[in-house]
Specification:
The protein has 96 residues and is mostly helical. The chain has one domain. Helix content is 71%, strand content 0%. Helix 2 crosses helix 3.
Length: 96
């Protein structure tokens, strides 16, 4: 038994149009895989890409330069932020 077969724990079913199944079957044959293995690998690859795309922030070159410039030379703190920092410091001092 192959390692991938011993770790399967759930079953997924899907309906597929005959012409789409023919394409999937051909692709699976070209890779020497079963249709099931091919579909699972393709679904996993797409799922990982979807999750990665959702977690990565993409910035234009202009936005990257602006972000870096603000890190290097941040603007002065707003009054509300100064008050928040002061409140945080007093809370931390009270805990110690």
């Amino acid at each position: 038994m192959a390692p991938s077969e011993t770790t399967r724990t759930a079953r997924v079913e899907a309906r597929i149009a005959p012409d789409a199944l023919a394409v999937v079957r051909r692709a699976a044959e070209l890779q020497g895989r079963s249709i099931s293995d091919f579909v699972v690998a393709a679904a996993l690859k797409d799922a990982q890409r979807t999750i990665e795309d959702a977690q990565i922030i993409r910035l234009s070159v202009e936005d990257q330069q602006r972000f870096a410039a603000l890190l290097i030379d941040p603007p002065p703190l707003a009054a509300a932020m100064k008050r928040a920092l002061k409140a945080r410091q007093s809370l931390i001092a009270d805990v110690k």
